[in-house]
Amino acid sequence: MEPGVELKHITFQAGGRTILKDISLSADRGCFAGVLGANGAGKTTLLKCINGIHACSGEVRVWGRNIRDCTEKEVARLVSLMNQNTNLEFDFTCRQVVEFGRYPYWKKGFWGEKGDERIVVQAMRDTGVLEFADVLVTRISGGERQRVLFAKTLAQDSRVVLLDEPTANLDLRYQRQLFQFGQRLACEGKTVLAAVHDLNIALRYCDTFFLLHEGELLAQGTAGEVMSPEHMRQAYGLNTQLYRNPVHHGLELAVLE
User: Fold this and answer.
1) Fold of the 5-85+158-255 domain
2) Can you say whether the dihedral through the CA atoms of 117, 101, 93, 167 is positive or negative?
3) Residue ranges per structural domain of the chain
4) Res. 220 pLDDT band, cuts 50 70 90
5) Tens digit of pLDDT for each residue in 88-133?
6) How far apart are CA 200 and CA 197, in angstroms?
7) How much is the CA Rg of the chain, to the nearest whole Å?
8) Can you tell me the distance from the alpha carbon of 10 to that of 70, in angstroms, rounded to the nearest whole number?
9) Are 42 and 20 in contact (CB under 8 A)?
10) Alpha carbon distance 128, 114 (integer Å)
């Protein structure tokens, strides 16, 4: 079985700078991968290369298909991206924003297939935003907009789900809920990649890790393989140690003095 996502020698340049340099990686179907790295390491750019927003050299394959050979709608059925930017300036209702997640399946007219409404309502219910479905998205808080955008991502029902710093505006309750949904999507066989700053959240919920440093892939694999003291020192300039949390018994990362 081919990986959910496979990158071969990806390089991306912009403004005379090399943002990503010769990155090759693969993420299995059914995995929840954390994409790690300091600010400016290239996490967001990597996700945008996977779904074709950024044209890069090398090869991007999703579910065995080269995205260069796919139409826009075919790519959208394969890959969805939840951006970290929640600024929505148009006066759409929250329901309308989530409905746009069904765009890849529309054939004629503005609204799509039979059953789309059920999918939209379920996505909004799952993310706790159904109560303000008819409220303008410009009238709700940043955290609520984040949840609306996640509902849109769920409604898109793609095989690969990309989350770019998805918990930036969320309180603890919804951070936990979003990452639990990430695990659920992986259990359903989807490939989920999340760019994450909070390494302990990544440790709690992700099963695979990719560590970027200055546009290059520094490490990939399990927590122990990726978050070694040497890798953390190189990527973040910090002395760290993995340890077993005595309460939930999962791995956590401590920053040492």
Assistant:
1) Rossmann fold (3.40.50)
2) positive
3) 5-85+158-255
4) very high
5) 778 899 999 999 999 999 876 555 566 788 999 999 999 999 999 9
6) 9
7) 18
8) 18
9) yes
10) 23
